[in-house]
Description:
CATH topology of the largest domain: Rossmann fold
CATH architecture of the largest domain: 3-Layer(aba) Sandwich
CATH superfamily of the largest domain: Response regulator
Mean pLDDT: 92
Helix content: 40-55%
Number of helices: 13
Number of strands: 12
Low-confidence stretches: 18-22
Amino acid sequence: MKSKFFALLLMLLMLLLICPIASAQQRVAVFDYDDRLDAPDTVAKYVEEKLKKILGPELLVEQFSGQEDDKITRDTLKTLDKSKYDLIITITSDALIPARHYIIQTPALFTNVNNPLFLGLNTLEASGGNMSGASYYVAVEKQLRFFQELQPGINKLGFIFDNDAQSKRIEVAEIRRACKKLEIEYELEFVSEKDELPAVVTDLIKKEVDAIVVTSSGKIYNNVNLFLDLSMQSMTPVYSFHKSGVKNGAVAALASDYYVMIDKLIVPMAYKILQEGVPPGSMPVVFLDEPFIYLNMTQADKLGISVRNDIKNKAVKTY
């Protein structure tokens, strides 16, 4: 009897060794500072789709929003950190800044952020902590040189900023440095509401800028249509720091692609964390190898801007 019992026990032990033990369902929280939970085709929804495609449909991915409110953002991040998620992915610079303080014990990745060194991170190398991620950052000087290639003779630029965007304080300082180096005069305008855009554009045109640049805020680059007629009447080109500005009427942008960043950068990092147990702090902050060129040739032709063939051939999207 004992021999049968031990034989059965031995068989069970062998089965346990051969058959993998079913692991608990993994849980990922995707947090966007902006209020886009009900919007279609968001980066957050794309993250969920890609993670489930790579890691399996059984992966639980939950979406959260800070509703563009700092207190809601802080409270939500604190709650998420205590909720035993296997990974938290934050979206936007506005999310990264508080996430550094309130995501303490959960592995975390960030995406859609400006230069992390300007957002409080001490290094772009592996930090040893619980956080890493991907940045869309393209040096302002590089972007301005690109605009000069399209429009030789630029001497004065007008920049429009969103008062409420964290990227503002980063880009203002860098724009001043880049313009000084490139010997470009500049004018800065700030808006709190999109309805203010026509007035600030009118002001920049009166100041005789050679071109207008819309900076990294959806409040601005998604509303180029509100002032495009004014810029066209004065034959003042508009350029963008974000590709969506080009779709909406800006002549060009030199920018990263948020969705390509998810495919090439964030999903592989998430896989390492969730499947291989690699801590985020062992991975450096990552960037796309080269920014992409976006062109609106319809607007360029109307403004008499002759775009070289080599630039056209490099463009990933032309309107």
